Amino acid sequence: RRVLLLGEGNFSFSAALCGAWGTHVVATCYESEEEAAGRGGAARSIRRLRDSGAEVVFSVDCTKLEEHFLLGKRDFDRIYFNFPHCGRKAGVVKNRQLLARFFHSCAEVLAQDGEIHVALCNGQGGTPADQPRREWHNSWQIVAVAAGAGFILSDVHPFRAETIEGYKCTGYRSQDKSFCVEGALNHVFTRSTAPLCFTPLSCKTQLGSQNISFQVPQVLVDKINRGFLEGNSSHPVRTIKEKLSAGLSQDFALQNISSCLPLLHQGHPEGVCPSNIFWITLSPGEAPSTEKMSQGLAGAVLFSHFGQDTDDNVQEGCPVPQQLYLRPSLLPHAQAIIKKGTFSPGTLQVLSGPVFRKCRITPHSMPVFHEMLVVLAVSRGTENSCIQMLVDNIKATLSSLHQSISGVKPSISLQEATRFGTELNDFAAFERQLGEIQHFLCVGTDPAPSGSCVGVVRTAPAELKSCELVVVSASLNLDLLAMLLCGISDWRMLWTWDRRFLRQFPEGELRLFKSFSLYPPSYVHDVSFWLPDGEEFDEVAFHTLARRVSGEMVVSILLRDSFQQPGTGRRSLCYRVTFQSCDRALGCREAAEMQLHFREEIRQQLGVTLR
Fold it and tell me: FDX-ACB domain: from which residue to which, for each copy (predicted)?
């Protein structure tokens, strides 16, 4: 591998590396050869480097690397820059600028899978790894300046000078003097994936007997048809689904019917707020005629409260029944199974696939996730024991998985739904809109499903119960389960395009996830505006716009202030918007551009008056 060392003082670090097998060292410094050789021990290290076949280059500016190395001499696998400094008494601002130009220069000469190693004295980096940690404004903000050049911090560990044979730090205030490196840290940076280009996307699907094409909502462009549950996938959501199915097959006969479930529904789900639905527009020029559409919709899935007539559920001001929307749940398909009565009592029907829900921005609120729905018809009078048997089976599988992954036995409980009011996470709260829930399935130490609810258990309403049978269903959020089992703190990581995510789960093996983007920088912006007179503010639409404009780079939106003007009664709101990526580089300039775009979009789409 080709290794580039920059800013060498006495070349003792380079000399320690030059003997490594399979490594070609290119050692450089900013000074001329005459100036560098005057440092104590430098001449001896330079001779050792040249005798070993290493290259020694002088007068190299670390901010203009492309000028020093021709195209054929680039593609370094590793670049080292130990204790960079502008020299003399330069402050934090000048050293940040030096690092920013250095990282931009590295982008021109680093191999695609290469690493940049930057060693800094204790406290300089400004990350939580520094102990003690400096205030952000008084640090070099290394993660933020690297992000501006497209790099992410993938590892940080102590810089142990005593383990490097012959190494002696030098260069204190541009002099041949040593400095304290106790508590120093080595920061390892890698290339980030490029920003996604969210071009309009059409998706083809079957609606009844018709093949149609529809426009995918922009916020879902990078999430539609990802195939995480397909047979060749090693994604953890598929592995968890397969493990759960295998466990259920020990106690029940299973039938998997997930392959033919349409993405689109027709009508309006009763009890569900319209702002939580992704309404769909058919692609121009591809919409079927009204007559064909009616024929197609006759075979489409109608969403209702487990069997009520959809046409009776239309409310004033809501979209007409013929409007289409992305499925927010697999329950309508269970409803269709119940109506047809085509399943055998005692056979567990397993449905799975992505579902889509507009929601507010929180770490566990997902506009799309993979649902696993199991439906079981049992003899009347045995439903409670069958529910317990079903839940015990799921709990046993999850407990076994959790213990094998983390070595800790989790707390998994079935909670009575009547015990809880509004203290629900978004998944549980939306499920409650879909119909009555008997139980919440919770994982973790929190006795309430405010953040730990991963599933709900229902029985079909009375009008769908026969004299002999009762239908029981359990809905599981596979994405939440993957987060809890694998220690993934941010749901967005499940949808990353960075290949380093799936590499941690080879052949579907479940492991504790180790983030490849440490301490990502965050950027805080405020936005305030006057609301249109006499109109209710749709906060979910506000959050959805933030998702779309930023490409899911907004991690938090908090209401800071609400003001009503005396006399006129006009209302003003002020929100704090925090931009942060979990998997790729996000620089301050890009975040500022997103904020400007967001301001313009809420003005146009929500009719507010910016302040």
Answer: 518-611
